[in-house]
C-alpha cells in the first residue's frame, strides 16, 4: 500500500473521466503531465525512503534507466509529432483504441508475471482483503477531496472539483510497474509489492466509470445553482 502511495498520477485515465463528466479538462491534463514528470524523480526517492534501501543502491543507474524508459520516448514522440501533425489530423489514427489495448496488455502481462512467481506467498483471503482495503481507500480519498474542494471558503468551481476528485486519487500503472522493476530489480518480493498497484489501477477506472453519471448530475445542478445566485435581482417597483 505504501508502494501505491508513492506512485505518480496516470497519464490518461483521470483526464478521460474528467472529460466524460465535463469537468476542467485543462487542469486534469496539466496535473497528469506535470505529475508524471515529477514522478520520474520523486517516486524512486519515495520508494527507497519508505520501503527501505541500503547505501549500495545504484541511483545513477536507476535514474538513467527511468530517463531512457519514460522521458526519451516522450521527447521523441513530441519531435516526430511536429513533422507528421498534418498527416495525423487528416488520417486520425485510432490512438485511443491503441492506447487502451496497450494498457490492457500491460495489466495482463504484469498480472501474469506477478502471480506466476512461486515466491509471491499470497493466499486468496489476503487478496480479497487487499481488494476491499483498496476500494475503501479510494472511496475515502474521493470523499475527502470532494469535501475539501467544495467547502464554503473554497474558490474551486464545480468543474475544478471534478478534476480534483479524479486526479488526486488516481495512480499510474503504466509508469509505476516499470519504476518498480527498475528500482527493485532482483528483489525477491517484487511481485508481492506490485499486487496493490495492480488492483488499484483497474479499480480506479471501474469506480470512476460507475460514478461518472452521479458526479455529472451533481456538477450540472451545482453550476445551475451558482448561476442563479449570481444573477442580479430585479428592482422592486413601489
TrEMBL record:
Family matches, as Gene3D superfamilies: 1.20.1530.20
GO CC terms, sorted: plasma membrane
Keywords for this protein: Membrane, Transmembrane, Transmembrane helix
InterPro entries: Na+/solute_symporter_sf, Put_Na-Bile_cotransptr
Membrane-crossing residue ranges in chain numbering: 28-50, 62-83, 95-116, 128-149, 161-184, 190-212
Similarity remark: Belongs to the bile acid:sodium symporter (BASS) (TC 2.A.28) family.
Protein name: NTCP7 protein
Gene name of the record: Slc10a7
Amino acid at each position: 500500500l505504501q508502494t501505491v502511495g508513492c506512485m505518480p498520477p496516470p497519464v490518461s485515465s483521470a483526464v478521460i473521466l474528467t472529460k466524460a463528466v465535463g469537468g476542467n479538462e485543462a487542469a486534469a491534463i496539466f496535473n497528469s503531465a506535470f505529475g508524471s514528470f515529477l514522478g520520474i524523480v520523486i517516486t524512486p526517492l519515495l520508494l527507497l525512503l519508505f520501503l527501505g534501501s541500503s547505501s549500495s543502491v545504484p541511483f545513477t543507474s536507476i535514474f538513467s534507466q527511468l530517463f531512457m524508459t519514460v522521458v526519451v520516448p516522450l521527447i521523441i514522440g513530441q519531435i516526430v509529432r511536429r513533422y507528421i501533425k498534418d498527416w495525423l489530423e487528416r488520417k486520425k489514427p485510432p490512438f485511443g483504441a491503441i492506447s487502451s489495448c496497450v494498457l490492457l496488455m500491460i495489466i495482463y502481462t504484469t498480472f501474469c508475471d506477478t502471480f506466476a512467481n512461486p515466491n509471491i506467498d499470497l493466499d486468496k483471503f489476503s487478496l480479497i482483503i487487499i481488494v476491499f482495503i483498496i476500494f475503501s481507500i479510494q472511496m475515502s480519498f474521493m470523499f475527502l477531496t470532494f469535501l475539501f474542494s467544495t467547502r464554503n471558503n473554497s474558490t474551486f468551481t464545480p468543474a475544478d472539483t471534478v478534476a480534483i476528485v479524479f486526479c488526486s486519487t488516481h495512480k499510474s500503472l503504466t509508469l509505476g510497474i516499470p519504476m518498480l522493476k527498475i528500482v527493485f530489480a532482483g528483489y525477491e518480493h517484487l511481485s508481492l509489492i506490485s499486487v496493490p498497484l495492480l488492483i488499484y489501477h483497474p479499480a480506479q477506472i471501474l469506480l470512476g466509470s460507475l460514478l461518472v453519471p452521479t458526479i455529472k448530475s451533481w456538477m450540472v445542478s451545482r453550476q445551475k445553482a451558482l448561476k442563479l445566485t449570481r444573477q442580479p435581482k430585479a428592482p422592486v417597483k413601489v
